[in-house]
Amino acid sequence: MSDGSVLPFWRRAPRWVWMLLIVSLAANFAVAGVYAGRAMRSEPVDPELGRYYSRVVALLPEERREAARSVILARSDLAEDRASFGGRLMQATETVTAAMTAEPFDPEALSDALSVRMDVFRSRFTGRQDRLIALAETLTPRERAMIAEEMRRRTKRRIARWTGR
């Protein structure tokens, strides 16, 4: 190599640079694999039903899904609830942040604002509860048991994620 020829750049890099490059590539492939696996695992979502009801309907036998979908969509407040929830939540959150940053600070105003925000969440779940009851009235005992078991499984998984267990 004393003849003055110039080595290509990949031959001039120290060994530790190559090791770092290999580790970096492996980490990138691992992250990409996690995202790809998660994307392939997720259930398709019916845009009219949303994620929650799409999961519920997917648990039912194929021949019962359209009837269940009709029961859920028969509740005319579903689309309105989904459309207005974000606006109502944002408005309630703005009220909370205003009360939290107000000078002088008024704990009573913050408490009231937090109560209003909680009422927004509560109204969302009350509507969901009503639609689920209407659907459950049309299901067989076996279908209700399948949905109940899935709810139990998902709740256990959420609790484990929240608590780190």
Features:
flat, single chain, 7 helices
What does this structure look like?
- This protein has 165 residues and is an all-alpha fold.
- The protein contains seven helices and no strands.
- The protein is flat, with a radius of gyration of 27 Å.
- The protein starts with 8 loop residues before the first helix and ends with a helix.
- The relative contact order is 0.08.
- The model has no long low-confidence stretch (mean pLDDT 84).
Short description, anyone?
The protein is mainly alpha-helical and 165 residues long. It is built from 7 helices and no strands.
Rg on CA atoms, Å: 27 Å
**Main pleated-sheet profile:** none
Q: Which series of helices and strands comes N to C?
A: HHHHHHH
**Count of individual helical segments:** 7
Shape: flat
Number of strands: 0
Mean pLDDT: 84
| Class of secondary structure makeup | mainly alpha
Uncertain residue ranges? none
Query: What percentage of amino acids are in beta strands?
Result: under 5%
Q: Please give the share of residues in helix.
A: over 70%
Distance between the termini: 59 Å
